């Protein structure tokens, strides 16, 4: 159970490493107590490190692709006796290769993690925030949501959903005292590409953004109440181009980046 020491409570999912860990670090540096969650034991190591910022940190190991896993996180939030001031719904999963060759259970896990678990958590915590008339929500979308993801078809489609969902929710809550922001990073130096079996692709082997920089951009946007932010000038340019490029051409371009073996010389 968290003991109140900071100026508020931040909940961060997918916080064992990468962008999620860095988002939690931003909140800790800003004086927020933390409840962090991920589906792996390493979340406890992350918590131990974050405590160095002299803040209270509770770590929850739970499968956030399931309602049961999200309920476990919600139970811990309730047990803390605290109101959630910041919700950073960052948990996500990717999957490379052609769709017909993918293990369907893995593809389903991408949908359940990126969409189902995320919107269930946002609805539950969002209602708690609305009852207080205040709160900030940050969803981790992606510039991948702007383009059909050949060889990442399911992943890109889930991020298109999150990008769209965040704007819709922001409009619904515009007079509620709750801000909704969407962080749209490009390729970032995390374990995502290894876990998604994309290391033999051009995008898997290319230089990527620093997760600390990406997280700081997203955190600041949330705190400023911005609706969306694309991190990095190259990603901003890519997002702008995607908005005026035919979908068929985008799908062809994405295939060059994500097709298995495209990273071989």
N-C termini distance: 52 Å
Side by side, the strands of the main sheet go 3-2-1-4-5-6-7
The number of helices is 10
Helix content: 40-55%
The helix/strand series, from N terminus to C terminus, equals: EHEHEHEHEHEHHHEHH
Radius of gyration: 18 Å
Major beta-sheet overview: 7 strands, parallel
Shape: globular
CATH architecture: 3-Layer(aba) Sandwich
Mean pLDDT: 90
Instruction: Write down the CATH topology.
Output: Rossmann fold
Count of β-strands: 7
Poorly predicted runs are none
Strand content: 5-15%
Observed structural traits:
alpha/beta; 265 residues; Sc_DH/Rdtase_CS; SDR_fam; Rossmann fold
Describe the structure.
With 265 residues, the chain is α/β, with parallel strands linked by helices. The protein has one domain (9-258): 3-Layer(aba) Sandwich (Rossmann fold), CATH 3.40.50.720. The protein contains 10 helices and 7 strands. The protein has helices at 18-29, 42-50, 67-80, 104-132, 153-172, 192-195, 202-205, 211-223, 233-242, 247-258, and strands at 9-13, 33-38, 57-61, 86-89, 135-140, 178-184, 228-230. The protein has a 7-stranded parallel β-sheet with strand order 3-2-1-4-5-6-7, with helices on both faces. α1 (18-29) crosses α8 (211-223) and α3 (67-80) packs parallel to α4. It is globular and about 50 Å long. The protein starts with 8 loop residues before the first strand and ends in a 7-residue tail after the last helix. The model has no long low-confidence stretch (mean pLDDT 90).
Entry summary:
48% of the residues lie in helices and 14% in strands.
